[in-house]
Specification:
Elements: E1 2-11, E2 14-22, E3 27-31, H1 38-46, E4 53-58, E5 61-62, E6 73-76, H2 88-98, H3 103-116, H4 132-144, E7 150-154, H5 162-179, E8 183-187, H6 190-196, E9 199-204, E10 207-212, H7 214-219, H8 224-229, E11 234-236, E12 252-254, E13 260-261, E14 267-276, E15 281-287, E16 290-296, E17 305-309, E18 316-317
Parallel strand pairs: 3-8, 3-9, 6-7, 7-8
Antiparallel strand pairs: 1-2, 1-4, 4-5, 9-10, 11-12, 12-18, 13-17, 14-15, 14-17, 15-16
Protein name: Putative spermidine/putrescine transport system ATP-binding protein/thiamine transport system ATP-binding protein
Pfam families: ABC_tran, TOBE_2
Domain ABC transporter: 2-230
Length: 324
């Protein structure tokens, strides 16, 4: 459905170079720290910026040199950019008016979208009376109104307080699944990426560091950077305790929840720090492999000597980052 091929965009102090594709009905996330190239990629796809090299194919159509209004994409900006002098219905209907749709069709489409985003009955409200989360949903409805071929969202939850983000994530996922519209979502939040995505593209300094489903990136990241970005990660210098096989000296990752307390485990350590998080404890454990992080439901004491097992199937070999 969407294919960015051999895209290159150069700035005096930054270079973006990547290939990526999005299939029909798929929600993909561009994930990364600020300055990694996420929004630049989205803006190139939308036509707001032009790549120095490469092509953009949307549903079999080459749109590389088309202006944004001819690409058939819906775009939700970080600050929503709602029109303050228009009410909710008028904001949503804006693209339909530009298209010259008949007024009865506009009214029907607006009511349909208000119900879809959970704002039925809000049509006549001034936008300044809405909460941030409600404004975000209006912005999504406005982007969807003209019937775009794909939906692009640039950190749409960044201005929303953390307590409301979970609800908004559920709303967005329900809308995307109901419409089955290919969606590209930009965020720096691993929580949002893991919850929403069919696939994640992890960007770092303008290149694609890793990609895959949320489960693949969390359980089997390709690089140390990807391992640490997706969650707490213990990095050990080579495969530990692999009897009957050649020693793999590549660095390996094991998640804190995959370490096992075992009185006969091959690795000893001493608890140096502890933290309680309601449903689990997190401990720092000093071992011969360095300091490891352990999460468990068991209550340990600071200074306690423990033994650990590092299950071989959870020791994931890591490769150098691309371009290094």
């Amino acid at each position: 459905m969407i294919h960015l091929s051999d895209i290159v965009r150069e700035y005096p102090d930054f270079r973006l170079a990547l290939d990526l594709s999005v299939t029909r009905e798929e929600l993909v996330t561009l994930l990364g720290h600020s300055g990694s190239g996420k929004t630049t990629t989205l803006r190139i796809l939308a036509g707001f910026e032009k790549a120095h090299r490469g092509s953009i194919i949307l549903n079999g159509r080459d749109v590389t040199n088309l202006p944004p209004e001819e690409r058939g994409l819906g775009y939700v900006f970080q600050d929503y950019t709602l029109f303050p002098h228009l009410d909710v219905s008028q904001n949503i209907a804006y693209g339909l008016r530009v298209q010259g749709r008949p007024r009865p069709e506009q009214r029907h489409r607006v009511e349909e979208l208000l119900e879809l985003v959970g704002l039925g009955g809000f049509g006549k409200r001034p936008v300044h009376t809405l909460s941030g989360g409600e404004q975000q949903r209006v912005a999504v409805a406005r982007a969807l109104a003209p019937g775009p071929e794909a939906l692009l969202l640039d950190e749409p939850f960044s201005a929303i307080d953390p307590e409301r983000r979970a609800s908004l994530r559920r709303h967005l996922l329900r809308v995307q699944r109901e419409l089955r519209i290919p969606t590209v979502f930009v965020t720096h939040s691993r929580t949002e990426a893991l919850y929403l995505s069919d696939r994640i593209f992890l960007l770092r300094q303008g290149i694609l560091e890793d990609q895959g489903t949320p489960l693949e990136l969390y359980e089997r990241p390709r690089t140390e950077y990807a391992a640490r970005f997706l969650g707490a990660a213990n990095i050990i210098p080579g495969m530990f305790n692999a009897p009957g096989s050649a020693t793999d000296k590549r660095p390996h990752m094991i998640r804190p929840e995959h370490l096992r307390l075992d009185s006969r485990g091959p690795l000893s350590g001493r608890v140096t720090e502890e933290g309680y998080y309601g449903s689990w404890w997190e401990y720092k454990v000093e071992t011969s492999l360095g300091e490891l992080t352990l999460t468990t439901r068991q209550n340990l004491s600071r200074g306690e000597l423990i033994r650990l097992d590092l299950p071989r199937e959870h020791q994931i070999p890591l490769e150098p980052s691309p371009g290094t």
